[in-house]
Amino acid sequence: MGKKALLLIQDGVGDRPIASLKDRTPLEVAKTPTFDRLADTGICGLMDPLAPGIRVGTDVGMLSLFGYNPLRVYCGRGPIEAAGVDLEMQESDVAFRANFATVTGDGKIVSRRAARIREGTASLAQALDGMSLSDGTKVIFRAATEHRAVLILRGERLSHMVTPSDPGPDQAGEKVLEIYPTLKQSAAAERTARLAAEFAAKSREILREHPTNKERINKGLLPANYVLLRGAGVRRPMRSLAERFSIRGACIAGESTVKGVAKMTGFTVISDPSFTANLDTDVMKKAQAAIDALAEFDIVMLHVKGPDIASHDNDPQEKARFFELVDNACERIMTETAGADDTIFALTGDHSTPCEIGEHSADPVPVVISGTGVLRDNVKSYGEHACSSGGLGRLTGNQFLLSVLDLIDVTYRFGS
Amino acid sequence: MGKKALLLIQDGVGDRPIASLKDRTPLEVAKTPTFDRLADTGICGLMDPLAPGIRVGTDVGMLSLFGYNPLRVYCGRGPIEAAGVDLEMQESDVAFRANFATVTGDGKIVSRRAARIREGTASLAQALDGMSLSDGTKVIFRAATEHRAVLILRGERLSHMVTPSDPGPDQAGEKVLEIYPTLKQSAAAERTARLAAEFAAKSREILREHPTNKERINKGLLPANYVLLRGAGVRRPMRSLAERFSIRGACIAGESTVKGVAKMTGFTVISDPSFTANLDTDVMKKAQAAIDALAEFDIVMLHVKGPDIASHDNDPQEKARFFELVDNACERIMTETAGADDTIFALTGDHSTPCEIGEHSADPVPVVISGTGVLRDNVKSYGEHACSSGGLGRLTGNQFLLSVLDLIDVTYRFGS
What DSSP character marks residue A343? Predict the structure, then answer.
């Protein structure tokens, strides 16, 4: 049995000092004896998901933690969502992230998420899948979690350089946006915008007559009578992390973006309906999944979404409370794998989300690596202030992952 | 009113330990209670304008602090000087930095700066502006401060790959250099070298007969009878910082290079004849300009040239004295804007200029960011030694600027 690594990825972990917490952060006020022990026995530092001063989304933050340079491989949310629902993209495909929505006859949005529809989306999606559009373009359409779905346009001379039809959050009452090319004088972009509009119009006819929607209307529910599109992207050539280092990797997650990135990089995704990608997720069940996965895989990524949710809700107390739950789960993993002293434990996040701004920020993420072979530094606890004087210094998400892989001896030499 | 940021950019701020100062630096021996308070309440670090080990000029250092990658956008001093005198460059233009000089009949330099001519350069420049050269090439010529001027060649198939005619400082008695192409087998570079030589010859005829020069000779002054050229460059496509982040920015400066970079990046330049870009600048008037600008703009850059001048003069005492003046001015700005606790104060520089070498060096610049949302570290004073253990770690000029912009919430997310 070779060495193993567990990366705990807490979404939105980093924060800024909060006046009501006496200028400490949620991570610093939370009682987290396990995180602190890892910091004390390990090496700490600050991690910029991409580079200092750059705010990133979860998709970009995760790509970096999976060893990629997002500036090279990132191409919109569509392809990540497609990977999340196991759709293989071909080279000329364009993928969109899609939402089932409720729209009035004259194109005004009643609900961007069709009142967060959960039931019947698979059958709605099936009615759209396989549709033929002009110029021989084929539609591939799959439902994802809740109101979410994925659209792939498959044909020739397509481009991802088109605008979304989705006007974004809090836009009830707004009109659906017209899709137009963002690249000037590109026949492919113009054509793709036209095809996306054609899909929207044809799918609207089909959804209007669909039994699931008739049933919803009878029940007094909003019908999922429109598909909003955004995040158009093409497949970028990516050599999977698993293949690059000949490792077996698992990712334990509830969130579709994280699952999508993990699948793109050749990791096995372990999920469960109780992994809600929210504050009510079953953290202990995730811990058990991690314990099981460590027996089988070389590297296990355990993602929790809770800190980011609490931060977007501007709730530092809730963020701190969630850290305590995760700390507890981490303790369980360490106890259960105590025999395996070859396991490297790493604490990180995909980006910072300060509670006071309720938004992702460019503040670096505090990180820890603990285990055999680690050069222990003087940092005694896991927090933003403490980690800033750690022995790792300041590195990118990509570099952090490689540093962990190096400690489990799966990296290879550049040069001879 | 959103959050604001003030960046104090002290030219050549960083230094090396000086034996006569008991191995401290000018910044460390200067009494700077305001800088120290900012360091104490803020987060500190070391900034490499471009990258560790790379010496930069003020132009490159400023480009980095304005958020650009100089390796991509920098193309000689000519285009920056052109922006500084409000000349709009077209895509095929080549701009040169020019000097009025005094040259003998057989082309030997008597004075590279025509004895630092100050009067009458506008009228001399006007006599050259609009000149026609071979192949339909047009001359655009403007006077800048003192002996400085800008030449733009406007025509087709021009190239910036040509050598300077200016042999550089301390070359009195040397011959004016011949301009030749630096790109082999490039018709455009050969043509541009020929056109620049044609401009030099024709302008010489015109300057010889110009009333301003006849008057100077009568007064016993050296005539400005030649135009030396250097820093040929073309316009590089640059999206202005102001546009990129939808911010209103102001730059308070006396130096033409700094003004040029600021204008290129969409900032409003605030200047005054008392801003001399020297040790005798009116620092308190600059402070007042900063106070006024903070009421109107999102980000204000306040540049002082003094530390660099004292360093080039190998004068650590004078450098320290100048820091004390600026510290005082900084105190005034902080007092006057005390109501605005949303203002982020940042201390930085465009590069280091150690007094003992009297030249720009690659030593990193000590930096501070203080204000709401900043993760305070353990550094108590502003200096090279103290900042090296700061919580920011080590970042580039570009990353430093983005980190400040992130704190005033004007950055946007990469990914979703």
Answer: E
